[in-house]
Amino acid sequence: ETGQGGIKDITFIVKGKGAYSRMKYEGGTHRVQRVPVTEANGRIHTSTAKVIVLPEADDDINIEIKDTDIRVDVYRSTGHGGQSVNTTDSAVRITHLPTGLVVTIQDEKSQLKNKTKALSVLKARLWDLEEARRQEELSKSRRSQVQTGDRSEKIRTYNFPQDRVTDHRIGYTRHNLPGVLNGELDEFIDNLITVDQADKLQHLFETDAAAK
Question: Which of 62, 105, 129, 164 could make a disulfide contact with 159, Cβ separation 3.0–4.6 Å?
Fold first, then answer.
């Protein structure tokens, strides 16, 4: 809290099916235009609030490895100097074809145990790759939402004197400010999703056309 009846910073979690896919559109700079009760001349004061929306990390890590995505090679385990330490083909080398990751295990005398261990190591490495990619996406999302907080970067304006809420990204306006402040955001979010999907389809079409 600010000590003046306001809130400087707040962090909260929104739970529910598809919560992030919808609430991510609230990320950005929100502009508020109002006449404070202390304003004797009726002048409109403008302030901004930055909103950052990030997905919650899952506790359970579940990496699926398809049989068609790996190549399994077996061979005899070797020791120092290339000497064979096993008379059977117990060593296992697994290559993950989509990423090129290679895991080799020859710790056990059992081929099955070595394969199980190799798959476990491969899953861990694939998770590391996915986590690195996810963190990079989060960083990009955070950078795009934080920006500088300048008023020119506003995504939405809440104008109290006009009872107006305008989303500048799509030029959509509603004259029901109390309702919006009470959580009636579906119209804004639905329109944002429609425009976003149309833009992505257009980009996909242009990319495909350029590749031909």
Answer: 164
* Fold classification of 19-59+143-211 (topology level): Alpha-Beta Plaits (3.30.70)
pTM: 0.59
**Which segments of 97-193 are extended strands (E)?**
101-105, 154-159, 164-167, 172-174
CA 142 to chain centre: 9
pLDDT of residue 1: 60
Residue 149 pLDDT level (bands cut at 50, 70, 90): low
Task: Count each helix (H run) and each strand (E run) in the chain, helices first.
Answer: 4, 8
Phi, psi values for residue 85, rounded to 5°: -110, 5
On average, the pLDDT of the chain sits at 83
Strand partners, 28: 51
The CATH number of 68-134, from 1.10.1200.10, 3.30.160.20, 3.90.550.10, 3.30.420.40, is 3.30.160.20
**74 token code pair:** 């077996």
